[in-house]
Predict the structure.
Amino acid sequence: MSEGVFYEDLAVGQKASFGKTITEADIVLFAAVTGDTNPMHLNEEYAKGTIFGERIAHGMLAAGLITKVMGTQLPGPGTIYLSQNLKFRRPVRIGDTVTATVEITALSPEKHRVSLRTVCAVRGEPVLEGEALVTVPSRAGHRVKEAAE
């Protein structure tokens, strides 16, 4: 493991964040990848007649930013998702900058599991909140793997 941290390097309270401005291209590409072509996201005329009055981003597009943080920053490379729950609070609109933040809330040493609070916010207001459980490589496991190679 050349980047990121090992389980032994983690502590409750550690945080990391990543921000991205959501574009129309992001929404169109997400729809193409997932097959979710709900007109709420893609059709301006349809969306005008909804409670939001305009197109909104897929909720899971914003949630996907959480995986960027966990897989590249904290805990980092080698992190494996075990579970995630989410509560969607507000819509994300084209042009909104979404900041995804993860915070370590608990560590379980027996299986190198990490519990995280996950939040995506726009202008400081949560658009989604949840909790994730991941497993993280350990330094000891890394040494065993290197010795076997």
About this structure: Strands lie at 15-21, 80-88, 97-108, 113-122, 125-135.
